[in-house]
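Q: We require from you a single protein entry containing the residue sequence and its fold in token form, and nothing else.
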Amino acid sequence: MKERPILFSEPMVRAILAGRKTVTRRVKSGERCPYGIPGDRLWVREAFATAIPGCPNGICYRADHNDRKGDGPSNPIRWRPSIHMPRWASRILLEVVDARPERLWGITGEDAMREGLDKRTCAKVFEAAAHGCDLEYRCWIANDRTGEDVGESVVFCRTCAEKRIRKTRNRDDLMPYGDRGCVMEEDGARYCEDCGQELRVSLTRHGIKTLIRELEGNLGKTYCALSDGDFAYLFDLCDGIGDYSEEDLPGLAHIAFAALWDSINARRGYPWIDNPWVWRIEFKVLDKDGKQ
């Protein structure tokens, strides 16, 4: 049994501590996995600071702080990069359960979730990938904001909804056209009440499922063509706008993983679109005594 260091960012450290992250992928270089074989151990390197009053043993970890600069202006902390963490300062010990090479595109939505991508983390990834793009909603849906039954729902494309809003003098009548609400709709596509065009991407179950299915199904071919607006729409979905369902999470995690991978590895010469070879390392967390 050998012990080796492994680096993780603050979001991934939090995911490990929460039990959400049990898998990591690293670019493959060489025929032997640098992170060991099943039974070997990995001690986690993360951003940290030492000699900090009030922290256990004087050690603070940046993953535990919302303020990346410390506890505020009155108590700044000089964080040290994870690469400089010594073994004695590490608080997380992992045991390798499986280590094997595979193509990057071999990842599934379920395995992307094992990479630590929950709904909240996906939202942060999509927000960063959207580069500040703030979308208007793709369609306006007539639905009561309080969730009360208002009968047959009516939908409009953005252009027709804006025309109706301009013609409306009573602001109370704007609600059906500018509401964030959405309808539970499973029977197929929705069509604009005025012009008749199909609302391919909407806030309904059909629109959400269609978008995720298309993006995930052709992820390798179409990911690089995703626009800031696509990511902004996905961020809105993770942020609670639209008829989100837990069954959407594997697909969202799959797309988010591709975006996260490129944000880290594209500039290193290993973009998602090239489908590089990676090491897939599965692990479990041990306590300080080496027990699970």
